[in-house]
Amino acid sequence: MKMKKGIGMISAVVLGMLSASPNTRADENSGELRRIHNAQEVFHELVQTPDQSIPRELLESAKCIAIIPGEKKAGFIVAAEYGKGLAMCRTEHGWSSPVFLTVAGGGFGPQIGGASTDVVMVFRNREGFQKLLSDKFKIGADATAAAGPVGRHAAAATDLEMHAEILTYSRSRGVFAGVSLEGAVVTPDRKADEDLYGSGVDREAILSGKVPVPEAARDLVAEVRRFTEGQKSVNKGNGG
To answer: What is the biggest distance separating any 2 CA atoms in the chain, rounded to whole angstroms?
Structure first.
């Protein structure tokens, strides 16, 4: 009788562990899922204000885009010297699944201190793709950068801006503006990548479009694709 009771208790524990595992996985991914959702929200609001945000033609020619949403918790602004975000790159078949990254130091902390500020980086060439695969790179040293032009068109951009590898922007109180991130260090967030895609995930495979877009990121990828593939794509997306 005691043996049966013991077996019953063990079975209950095992069943409890099995039933809890999906929830545990969801909890582990909650930070990454929130980051994806926040990045999508930032991008959506960006394209809704064309006169006060990144020029459309720069988005249409971008090779990669990084979005670092400002952090808010329970209604309070979190001022920090670093930010967590994600990056995606253009492939032959559209935009890739996102990889996660952090940005710290340099011009990043002082720019966002005391305010919830979103940061967007537009990578102008394929060298940006290689930078995102490195262990880390410093903006301004390993990659030329400039505060990006703002407005409906990029015609007002200076030669310095148009020759920079990365154009950097910040958004505070709903308004996007070019911002200097000179000296900020961009580092892969490999743990977040593994939490979303599984162990042994390859960042190059993700950014090359060889890894299917996870369900959690489909809306983000669809929105980025819709507003970065030219007016024809936008019209098609609207049923035009």
So the answer is: 84
Tell me the per-residue pLDDT of 8-25, one tens digit each, with 9 for 90 and over.
444 443 334 333 333 334
Q: Where are the domains of the chain?
A: 41-237
- The neighbouring-strand residues paired with 75 are none
The count of other CB atoms within 10 Å of the CB of residue 93 is: 8
CA-wise closest residue to 179 among 111, 115, 105: 111
pLDDT tens digit sequence for 24-80: 343 445 789 999 999 999 998 888 777 777 888 888 999 999 999 986 554 444 445
Tell me how far the alpha carbon of residue 111 is from its chain's centroid: 19
Note whether 66 and 35 are within 8 A (CB): no
Sign of CA dihedral 95, 83, 47, 38: positive
Give the residue among 68, 79, 174 at the shortest CA–CA distance from 121: 68
Apex CA 190: angle with CA 185 and CA 195, to 5°? 140
171 close to 46: Cβ distance less than 8 angstroms: yes
**What's the CA gap between 162 and 152, in Å, rounded?**
16
Query: CA angle 64-70-73, nearest 5°?
Result: 140
